[in-house]
Amino acid sequence: MNFDLSEEQVMLGRSVAAYLEKHWDQDRLSNGGTAARRALWQGIAADLGLLSVMVPEGLGGMGGGMIDAMVVAQELGRHLALDSFVPTAVYAGTLFKTADATQALESVGTGKMIVALAHTEPGQLSGARKVGTRVENGQLTGTKIMVAGAPLATHFIVSAQEDEQQTFSLFLLSADTTGITRSDFTMIDGQPASELRFEDVAVGAETRLGAIGAGADLHLHAADMATIAHTAEAVGMMETLIRTTAAYITGRQQFGQPLSAFQALQHRMADMVLYLEDARSLLYMALLTDPADTRAFERAVTGMKVKAAEALRFVSQQAVQLHGGMGITSELMVGHFFKRAMTVNENYGGPGFYRKRYEASLD
């Protein structure tokens, strides 16, 4: 089977890499804050039109699919850049397509819309089909925690119960809607995030995505697509970690010879490469599985997530250990990759949740 990218996809990856080499670096990542992330978003939207990668051509987009999104996400992972890409272009883009939210999809493509998912609540289990946030008499009230990217976002996708439904609905709300209060903080990987409080926020049919009570199924499908993109990001991260670590142990001398001359460290590096290639293979399998075959697609995505999370954890930990104590510091990019790995692995439920879904798919 041929896994080679098309000429257009190779060019897309090179364009993203060249842009990031010029416009993103460790200083912007560490010290640029929200302003640097917003500037990168606006630049990539204006100069590359990257946010339209999955938007249909009829709506002014590139008309690409998940393989194109994989190419972009993998390059972003190599540079630890644009952490709002997957939530907006892939998660929200998939959701808007499924819910036939054409205007919102167009806004994603132009880069005018940055989306943050407001779904997690205190004590909420991954995969929950009910939430505590409620809609009564057209007023949405509740609290959402760990809303990654909220300080950057122009819009929130919010889960809420309405009309005694057994599952939640999803609403698309502008970030400046009356009744929304943000408490901002920084996540372990430096990504801006917020706790959101909703007090009698006006909602209706015009803000609902899909049918009443359809949010759980819409969310699960979009989250699976986003998980594929995050796995591509993880593959890019592991590639950079392996390359950086190999360069370090080759240049560092101990007992009169480079560290790379020691067989034990060679074995560690070999193990890192094996974990990376396992994750890459499972990523390709998920991309080649038809989402219409619900059972097979769920098995492919959940199995990929479990193994890719294990691989990313192993590779990032080994990279830190092979760099020594300095590997965890902010002065080296290795430490930033290690912290980002912790947040990427927990997106949309974490490996424990996906392991349970994989086991259930085998019944």
UniProtKB/TrEMBL annotation:
Query: Which UniProt keywords are present, listed alphabetically?
Result: FAD, Flavoprotein, Oxidoreductase
Q: Which cofactor does it need?
A: FAD
Offer an example of a GO molecular function term for this protein. acyl-CoA dehydrogenase activity
Q: Where is the Acyl-CoA oxidase/dehydrogenase middle domain?
A: 116-201
Q: InterPro entries of this UniProt entry?
A: Acyl-CoA_Oxase/DH_mid-dom (IPR006091), Acyl-CoA_Oxase/DH_mid-dom_sf (IPR046373), AcylCo_DH-like_C (IPR036250), AcylCo_DH/oxidase_C (IPR009075), AcylCoA_DH/ox_N (IPR013786), AcylCoA_DH/ox_N_sf (IPR037069), AcylCoA_DH/oxidase_NM_dom_sf (IPR009100)
Q: Which family does it belong to?
A: Belongs to the acyl-CoA dehydrogenase family.
Q: Protein name, please?
A: Acyl-CoA dehydrogenase
